[in-house]
Amino acid sequence: MDNLFKGAYTLIRSRRRTIALYVRGGAVEVRAPVNMPKRDVERFVASKEGWILERLAEAAERKAARAALTYGDAVSFRGGSFPIEAAETGAGFDGNSFRLPPGLSPEEVQAACAQLLKTLAKQDLTRRTRDWALLMSVEPAAVGITGAKTRWGSCSGKKSVNFSWRLIMADDDAIDYVVVHELEHLSEMNHSPRFWAIVERFLPDWRERRAKLARLQRKLGSEAWA
Q1: Which of 40, 172, 179, 195 could form a cystine bridge with 188, CB 3.0-4.6 A?
Q2: Do 144 and 213 have their domain in common?
Q3: What pLDDT is recorded for position 226?
Q4: Contact 133/114 with Cβ under 8 angstroms?
Q5: 144 shares a domain with 215
Q6: Burial status of residue 204 (CB atoms within 10 A of its CB: 0-12, 13-18, 19 or more)
Q7: 112 and 178 share a domain?
Q8: How far apart are the first and last CA of the chain?
């Protein structure tokens, strides 16, 4: 593990009063007061070497966990877990597995699975949105699928609703929460008490559904979908 650190760090000086250390993206950054002697900075970094090595090792493990998928791995879809299998018949999802042509590299497998999920998301999320729109007596101008990584859904001022294709990896009840949430924004472009009261009328357990999304977000953040 010694080769993770090698004593290298980036030093940033500013008009701060204390010294601080950060490990970000596999790199070490030290922020120190303008007038702090370099020997004091080095002494501080040396005293934190064990902590630095632990953080760098954790970052390396997370990076390894985010390696591209390959045959035999599983893909989340509507809350379930489905294996990736090689098939001569081409790419598709048969309800039991994601079937891809053989011989693809991990990066190509990842890209092919993402494309399948985008297609499935377009079909399923559009249908769900139309069904819920009828129940809620609202009418979106359009339903779009985006590549957003940090937002599950959005509603524009032009009355169109959009969903990240990654949402299709969530449980059905969590998906419905996002759909209802964004459709309600067609009437209430805010998060007022009235907004949440209407969401709760349709989904009394919306808090539990939202918690599922938070757990999924953490899971995807440790995988190649991040």
Answers
A1: 195
A2: yes
A3: 56
A4: no
A5: yes
A6: exposed
A7: yes
A8: 26
Q: How many domains does the chain have?
A: 2
pLDDT by position in tens, the chain (length 226): 344 677 789 999 999 999 999 988 778 999 999 999 999 999 999 999 989 988 888 777 766 656 778 999 999 999 999 999 999 888 999 999 999 999 999 989 999 999 999 999 999 999 999 999 999 999 999 999 999 988 999 998 889 999 999 999 999 999 999 999 999 999 999 999 999 999 999 999 999 999 999 999 888 877 777 5
Structural domain for 51, as ranges: 2-65
Q: Which of 206, 216, 129, 130 is nearest to 170 (CA)?
A: 216
Picking from 13, 31, 65, the residue at the C-terminal end of a domain is 65
Secondary structure of 91-121 in the HEC alphabet? CEECCCCEEECCCCCHHHHHHHHHHHHHHHH
Cβ contact 163:174 at 8 Å: no
How far is the C-alpha of 181 from the C-alpha of 184, rounded, in Å?
5
CA distances from 222 to 61, 76, 132 (A): 10, 14, 32
Residue 168, token pair as written in the block: 């299709």
Residue 151 lies in a domain: yes
